[in-house]
């Protein structure tokens, strides 16, 4: 009976509860004595080693730490994908006032908040550091000053507690988050969209990634945010606390996406690369022309703001859909995905945009792909995705560092490619879709 209860996590949950009781006013509850005895007895029977056990009765937990940009995140995740505790400190409102992220400011705020965020996540999980099986931390890529804080703190925690350390690639974590809730088997196609990245990659396995396409200049989130800044959307009270992309999506919902024409990026190139700089510059020209036409000055907003936002959002989405469709053609030509496992996973902060999601869903419906996207709260940067990535690596026994010298040797990297670049091969085939999917 005890073994069955432990296997299903019942005693584990009660022990976490009793640890809280134990620390309440110094009172030792009878339940704590009883369950502690059961735990000791069970440990003797099963000979559980909390650092190296592979017993099916032992639930593994990983602490994840994320500081790649402007959010300080931490979370505790178990081997079933359950989130035991999470904490997040956002710097969004601070950087919004400055019109963009200021790296030195972000670094100081990470330093001020990381200890509290990690302790909060552990407290919500009802655990202490000694209960954790491994510590996973984002070490690449991202803002160097921000990464330095999380990398240093994660290493210190691992070394002081004698825990394994798992260095995490930020983009890999985004791509694997979907596997917490859905049974998505390798290999699968991933479209990663954020303020700093735009990637089309094939996730072959934890240690094997193939890049089919990536942005050659701006990322989609960056283009949307800069566009919103030029449109002066912060001057509208209801959008003053929103990100640029959110504000554009909101206004675009009641606008005409065909009101203004934008060029088609990369149309001369037979590959799956992305470029959003041209779209952004075209938007700036349209805004300047409309400001002159309507004699808009200072902080005032151009009258056709909804149509401009809708047209710009459509242009960005059209580019994303077309390049992803090219990637699907390339995959078919090279037979890179099993016909029974044609899956597109979309993740990253820009994946929160419902208009973009619906367009990519239409693409998948037309091409026969399964469409998967994490819930919006898991698309943006967070500690959960880092903890889960660490758990996947801990279970697969790959990329986990146990030795002190190996952990100390880990360095953060502001730029780091996620896998092998296949762009030249894509270009050599002259990939082109016979008929574009419309949305």
UniProtKB/TrEMBL annotation:
Entry GO terms, CC: mitochondrion
Domain called Gcp-like: residue spans: 83-388
Transmembrane segments: none
Reactions it catalyzes: L-threonylcarbamoyladenylate + adenosine(37) in tRNA = N(6)-L-threonylcarbamoyladenosine(37) in tRNA + AMP + H(+)
Keywords noted in UniProt: Acyltransferase, Metal-binding, Mitochondrion, Transferase, Transit peptide, tRNA processing
SUPFAM superfamilies associated with the record: Actin-like ATPase domain
Coiled-coil features, chain-numbered ranges: none
NCBIfam families xref list: gcp_kae1, T6A_TsaD_YgjD
Family annotation (HAMAP family): TsaD
Record's protein name: N(6)-L-threonylcarbamoyladenine synthase
Protein species of origin: Cherax quadricarinatus (Australian red claw crayfish)
């Amino acid at each position: 009976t005890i073994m069955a209860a432990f296997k299903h996590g019942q005693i584990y949950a009660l022990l976490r509860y009793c640890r809280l009781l134990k620390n309440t006013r110094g009172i030792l509850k009878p339940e704590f004595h009883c369950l502690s005895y059961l735990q000791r007895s069970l440990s003797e029977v099963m000979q559980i080693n909390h650092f190296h056990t592979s017993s099916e009765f032992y639930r593994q937990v990983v602490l994840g730490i994320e500081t790649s940009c402007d959010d300080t995140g931490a979370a505790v995740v178990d081997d079933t994908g359950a989130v035991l505790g999470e904490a997040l400190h956002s710097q969004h409102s601070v950087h919004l006032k400055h019109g963009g992220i200021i790296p030195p400011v972000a670094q100081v705020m990470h330093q001020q908040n990381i200890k509290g965020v990690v302790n909060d996540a552990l407290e919500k999980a009802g655990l202490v550091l000694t209960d954790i099986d491994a510590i996973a931390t984002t070490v690449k890529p991202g803002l160097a000053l921000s990464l330095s804080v999380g990398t240093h703190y994660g290493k210190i925690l691992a070394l002081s507690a004698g825990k394994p350390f798992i260095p995490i690639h930020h983009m890999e974590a985004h791509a694997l988050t979907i596997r917490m809730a859905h049974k998505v088997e390798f290999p699968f196609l991933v479209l990663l969209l954020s303020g700093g990245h735009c990637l089309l990659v094939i996730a072959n396995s934890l240690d094997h990634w193939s890049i089919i396409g990536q942005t050659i200049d701006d990322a989609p989130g960056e283009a949307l945010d800069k566009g919103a800044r030029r449109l002066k959307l912060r001057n509208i009270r209801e959008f003053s606390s929103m990100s640029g992309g959110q504000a554009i999506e909101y206004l675009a919902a009641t606008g005409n996406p065909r009101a203004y024409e934008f060029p088609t990026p990369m149309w001369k190139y037979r590959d799956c690369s992305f470029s959003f700089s041209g779209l952004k510059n075209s938007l700036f020209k349209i805004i300047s022309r409309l400001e002159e036409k309507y004699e808009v000055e200072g902080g005032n907003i151009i009258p056709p703001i909804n149509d401009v936002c809708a047209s710009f959002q459509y242009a960005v989405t059209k580019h994303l859909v077309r390049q992803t469709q090219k990637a699907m053609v390339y995959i078919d030509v090279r037979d890179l995905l099993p016909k029974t496992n044609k899956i597109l996973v979309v993740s990253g902060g820009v994946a929160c945009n419902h208009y973009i999601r619906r367009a990519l869903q239409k693409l998948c419906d037309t091409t026969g792909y399964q469409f998967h996207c994490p819930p919006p709260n898991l698309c943006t940067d967070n500690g959960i995705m880092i903890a889960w990535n660490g758990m996947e690596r801990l279970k697969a026994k790959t990329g986990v560092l146990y030795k002190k010298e190996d952990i100390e040797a880990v360095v953060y990297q502001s730029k780091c490619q996620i896998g092998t670049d296949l762009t030249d091969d894509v270009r050599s085939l002259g990939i082109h879709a016979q008929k574009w999917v419309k949305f």
